[in-house]
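Minutes, structural biology subgroup

Action item carried over from last meeting: produce the structure token record for GMP reductase (Photobacterium proteolyticum). EB confirmed the sequence was re-checked against the source entry. Recorded below for completeness.
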Amino acid sequence: MRIEQDLKLGFKDVLFRPKRSTLKSRSQVELTRDFTFKHSGRQWSGVPIIAANMDSVGSFEMAASLAKHGVMTAVHKHYTVADWAEFIKRSDAGVLNNVMVSTGTSDADFQKTKDIMAMTDELIFICIDIANGYSEHLVEYVERVRAEFPDKVISAGNVVTGDMVEELILAGADIVKVGIGPGSVCTTRVKTGVGYPQLSAIIECADAAHGLGGRIIGDGGCACAGDVAKAFGGGADFVMLGGMLAGHEESNGEVIENDGKMFMKFYGMSSQSAMDKHSGGVAKYRAAEGKTVLLPYRGPVENTIQDIMGGVRSTCTYVGAAKLKELTKRTTFIRVQEQENNVFGKE
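Output recorded by EB:
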């Protein structure tokens, strides 16, 4: 047993220090990033925000709405091959280029991914997603998927330390998904005692990935637009959002009426709700590691994604970054013990 004494930080522990800026308006800030990925050689251009591959967030409807803004969606893995065929038939390339096909690591998952990817060349992203990215099985599966799809962009995770980021990139991942336990409906840290403060995880994992020409997704922990900006400032190439995009018309969650008010069910993908829906219940050898909540129904996602993007643009104007790509170079974080004045409640 050993103890690391170094301070590790979450989004609530810091604020951006403002700097002189030549920008007159947030409208001058460019949020689009252009990436060329290490292994696939693929190029992609868009706003590097991703709707999470949760079945009450990452729906086909969400993908269609967010693609209008150049924003991505990691579509959840519980759609059938027939569902995908129908979605592909009604979608143009602008949507499909901004979609990640999510998969687990079983043989059945592998075959399903092959079937989906064979339908169109417009699908270029594969998201290999398991809760514990420290499994050697994940490394082997990344190698297998890379061999099968040499020209596709492969994301794999989740991990929180540089050593595993490097191993996954060397195995064939273009992008590594970073985050264990920070999500709003994740209880991994409570049930297992395992985790890593998300901002420090992003900073350390970005450093490891960029040294090898790889990229990272900061996945989880964002509760407001300022957190999204902090994730980018810490070095995340992409930021994945679950709870911030849940509860919307396009989220595909179960709508419930209570006392005349509309709510939408939102739950973690290791929760009792998800296990009951997709796996016949929680297996006897494990515990549920997610919670189920009811969110006030929020209508179309349009206003929310505009608000998030507007917040990040505003951050950039405060630190003098004309492009999102420049934000991390212009970032100085200051440690704080308070974030906001809540005398009249939280927004």
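Discussion: The domain at 14-335 is CATH 3.20.20.70 (TIM Barrel).
Next step: EB to file the record with the rest of the batch.
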